[in-house]
Design goal:
Layout: H1 11-22, H2 26-45
Helix pairs in contact: 1-2
Length: about 80
């Protein structure tokens, strides 16, 4: 029986779970730990979208603009767009 290609049990993580957690192989447990920590670090450092929530009163309007992102060369300190102190 063929497995689903690209499913959660395929690839490095699937092997590490099967052989490390289920099979008890110490090297595969290390591979699993390194893989999971790597994914968590990547998720933590990924830039998050800017979200603003604000309630409008009756009669107020909202204008939405999309401005091009400024390069770090345009801003001293390389902080990109945003409020600078």
């Amino acid at each position: 029986m063929a497995g689903i290609r690209g499913g959660p049990g395929s690839g490095l993580l699937g092997n590490a779970v099967r052989r490390g957690l289920i099979g008890g192989s110490r090297p595969w447990q290390i591979v699993l730990a390194v893989t999971v920590v790597g994914r968590l670090v990547r998720r933590a450092v990924r830039p998050r979208p800017i979200v603003l929530t604000e309630r409008l009163d009756v009669g107020e309007t909202l204008e939405i603009r999309h401005l091009p992102r400024a390069s770090s060369a345009d801003h001293p300190g390389g902080h990109g767009s945003g409020g600078e102190n």
